[in-house]
Amino acid sequence: MDPKLQQSAFYAVLALAVLAAIGGGLVTHGAEGMAFGLFASFTLGGSVMCIWERSVVRSAFSLMATFMGVAGLFVLLGHDFLAMAQILIYVGGILALLLFGVMLTPPDLTERKLTRVGGAVVFVFGGAGLVWNHVQNATRSLAVLPPEELTEATTQDRAIGLAFLHPEQYVVAFELAAFLLTVALVAAVYIARRRTEDFEPEEVA
Questions:
Q1: Secondary structure of 79-133 in the HEC alphabet?
Q2: Residue 137: which pLDDT band, with cuts at 50, 70 and 90?
Q3: Residue 126 belongs to what domain range?
Q4: How far is CA 17 from the centre of its chain?
């Protein structure tokens, strides 16, 4: 099949899936369902795009959409600290680390072999099935409360932002995380760097 046709078909199916998720959430649970469908689409759609795309820039933006989708899901669950940590550490640090590592690594022209793609598909669907089974078993034991008995969601973004600057709270952990990311980035550059012998032609026996 023509690569351009494959690309168009992939993005058409992905766009329809995103619209179906957002529309289904809006119909079933209103604005909250629509927000969940949007963030879930960012998370799953971004991860699929990251695997599918050959362009490093597009893959990086797709991975950023995945991280942002996870942060949005944390916001819907009322965990502001995890959402901020997701954005600060993963979007601000891990994404740059992976981007540098990928750009400095020689490409593998056999990465889209049928056997590798088939194995990845089986692995993904198998993992998704296990997660779905675990979620189903976990939700059966939960007590469902009516909406009027649920506590009102509150935000703590201001307190978390101030805690990151306070010397007795999160600032030390934040600096240690930044130091760890810097060390990991330097190590990734050292491992992925091309040596002089990589450019020399191989001797034919």
A1: CHHHHHHHHHHHHHHHHHHHHHHHHCCCCCCCCCCHHHHHHHHHHHHHHHHHHHH
A2: confident
A3: 109-138
A4: 18
Query: How many Cβ atoms are within 10 Å of 186's Cβ, its own excluded?
Result: 12
Same structural domain, 16 and 76: yes
Look at residue 108 and tell me whether its pLDDT is greater than 70: no
Residues 97 and 160 in one domain: yes
Q: How far is CA 41 from CA 30, 46, 72, 81, in A?
A: 16, 8, 11, 22
Residue 34: count of CB within 10 angstroms of its CB: 18
More confident residue, 197 or 29: 29
| CA-to-CA separations, 149 to 80, 104, 198, in angstroms, rounded | 22, 54, 65
- Are residues 114 and 77 located together in one domain of the fold? no
Residue 32 forms part of a structural domain: yes
Confidence of residue 12 (pLDDT cuts 50, 70, 90): confident
Closest CA to 14 of 56, 48, 61: 48
Residue 142 DSSP one-character state: S
With contact defined as beta carbons under 8 Å apart, do 87 and 57 qualify? no
Any idea of the CA torsion for 46, 49, 54, 56, to the nearest 10 degrees?
Answer: -10
Whether residue 166 sits in one domain with residue 71: yes
- Claim to verify: residue 39 and residue 16 sit in the same structural domain: yes
The letter for the amino acid at 162 is L
